[in-house]
Write a structure and sequence with these properties.
Order of helices and strands: HHEHHEHHEHHEEHEHHHHEHHHHHH
Subcellular location: Endomembrane system
CATH superfamily of the largest domain: Multidrug efflux transporter AcrB transmembrane domain
GO biological process, one term: lipid metabolic process
Structural class: alpha+beta
Organism: Photinus pyralis (Common eastern firefly)
Number of domains: 2
Protein name: SSD domain-containing protein
Number of helices: 19
Shape: elongated
Helix content: 55-70%
Keywords: Disulfide bond, Glycoprotein, Lipid metabolism, Membrane, Signal, Transmembrane, Transmembrane helix, Transport
Length: about 475
């Protein structure tokens, strides 16, 4: 395999790119599963089947939008949250929410809310106690009114007609609700089948609600209060926000690994000062970059293939697999490159194809066995019923397998071409430029003088020198 890949590099590289491109075409069917219930619960489980039966006969459960207003920002500690000014301000916030218009579908709360008995929306809030009085809160009697309504909620029913129990809107009190340290309000929105117009309209209005509540947070902060909220789409938004943040970490990790690969594979430290021109010939930046590209290609091919077969990806896959494949895959390129350097010293008179084949023949079995073991281990995880684990295991198994195959074919072809370039003393980043000065000290470091190697001195890279002399001196 190594001899074929090094003898026909163009065919090997072209075939590898073609296969990866075909597999990656499945990205057109890529679908990301974001629903937590479908991530962690198997569709065949009794709970999932019962929920599906309920949704098909009675419709999906309602969407709840909740806020929590507390008074815990004072140095003295938590205190009563209610006052006339706070009640008046919160009543204005609720009025503005009722008048919110969504951006895309131009829907109001009245259009998307749940209306059980009449034309009124279900809004469970402390302000509902004053509905019978026209929503007017008396600054002198509001405490007595609130105590009376909390004692007998049926006499202070809100617009939608259902009495509001004090435990549903107050928190952090013992006997007197006016001393409550927290209040909560809930808007109940109708739900519908996934991707239906009704659901999209509800989500659109929730986005408008989120923007308004973010403004209310600042208003509450100015009053010495803390407002928190949770909408039905909050969990999905937080997951997406986390993924976007983690993407930066993935990019940084790949850059660090690229730098490490260039250092570990690069020019022996002792030759840099002897002849700086060697740095242009033996830097191996291309091989380090290629190792990272192969990792990305394997991830792309795996995701594309399983998207073809209809296996949905998850946020876990998007965030974790790049690290796994990077960790278990990049180390193989060090084994192959360093083994080729040892073969160059022991068999200097053989042609490049034979030396590359000999190097892969020594390292290939270990790489293949390791890759098969990792692939089988991940594949066994695909038998788990939990969708998140099953899909992750399948995607990881495919990525690890493709990565190993590309390393023993495509990478070997590039390694062969790189070795030919080095022995012809050509610049790595501009191979059309032959560096004459590099010929002087290339003997013993991947160069030929008179058709044979005249020095077999062991070479040490910058990283090897650091580990030998500083990190773990003998």
């Amino acid at each position: 395999l190594g001899h074929t890949a090094s003898r026909f590099p163009g065919l090997t590289i072209g075939t590898s790119l073609l296969v990866v491109a075909i597999l990656s075409a499945g990205w057109f069917k890529f679908d990301l599963e974001k629903e937590p219930a479908r991530l962690w619960v198997s569709p065949s489980s009794p709970a999932a089947q019962e929920k599906a039966y309920f949704d098909s006969h009675f419709g999906p459960f309602y969407r709840a939008e909740k806020i929590f207003l507390v008074n815990d920002t004072q140095p003295s500690g938590p205190g009563p949250v209610l006052s006339y000014e706070t009640l008046k301000w919160w009543a204005e916030v609720e009025k503005s929410i009722a008048q919110l218009e969504s951006k895309t579908y131009a829907k109001f709360l009245h259009d998307v809310c749940f209306k059980p008995m009449n034309d009124a929306c279900v809004v469970q809030s402390v302000t509902g106690y004053w509905f019978a009085k026209g929503g007017v809160i008396n600054p002198k009697t509001w405490k007595d009114d609130l105590r009376q309504c909390a004692k007998s909620p049926v006499d202070c029913r809100p617009e939608f007609g259902q009495p509001i129990e004090p435990s549903m809107v107050f928190g952090g009190y013992e006997d007197d609700v006016t001393e409550a340290q927290a209040i909560t309000a809930t808007w109940v929105v109708r739900n519908a089948e996934e991707a239906s117009f009704a659901q999209l309209a509800a989500i659109d209005w929730e986005n408008a609600l989120r923007d308004r509540l973010l403004e209310a947070q600042k208003e509450a902060q100015d009053r010495g209060l803390r407002l928190s909220f949770n909408t039905e789409i909050s969990l999905e938004e937080e997951l997406n926000k986390s993924t976007n943040t983690d993407a930066k970490i993935v990019v940084v990790s790949y850059i660090v690994m690229f730098i490490y690969a260039c250092m570990a594979l690069g020019t022996p430290f002792k030759h840099i000062f002897r002849n700086p021109a060697l740095l242009l010939v033996e830097s191996k930046v291309t091989l380090g970059l290629l190792g990272i590209i192969i990792v990305l290609m394997s991830i792309t091919a795996s995701i594309g293939f399983f998207s073809w077969v209809g296996l949905k990806a998850t946020l876990i896959i998007v965030e974790v697999i790049p690290f796994i494949v990077l960790a278990v895959g990049v180390d193989n390129i060090f084994l192959i490159v360093h083994e080729l350097e040892r073969v160059n010293l022991s068999c200097p008179d053989q042609v490049v194809e034979e030396r590359v084949a000999r190097a892969l023949g020594r390292m290939g079995p270990s790489i293949l066995f390791s890759a098969l073991t990792e692939t089988v281990a991940f594949a066994l995880g695909a038998a788990v019923g939990m969708p998140a684990v099953r899909n992750f295991a399948a995607y990881a198994a495919g990525a690890v397998l493709v990565n190993a195959i590309l390393q023993m074919t495509m990478f070997v072809s590039f390694l062969s071409l790189n070795q030919m370039r080095v022995e012809d003393h050509r610049c790595e980043l501009w191979p059309w430029w032959q560096i004459k000065k590099a010929r002087i000290h290339l003997n013993g470091s991947n160069g030929y003088v008179g058709g044979g190697r005249v020095s077999e001195i062991e070479e040490e890279s910058i990283l090897q020198v650091f580990i030998k002399n500083t990190y773990a001196p003998s």
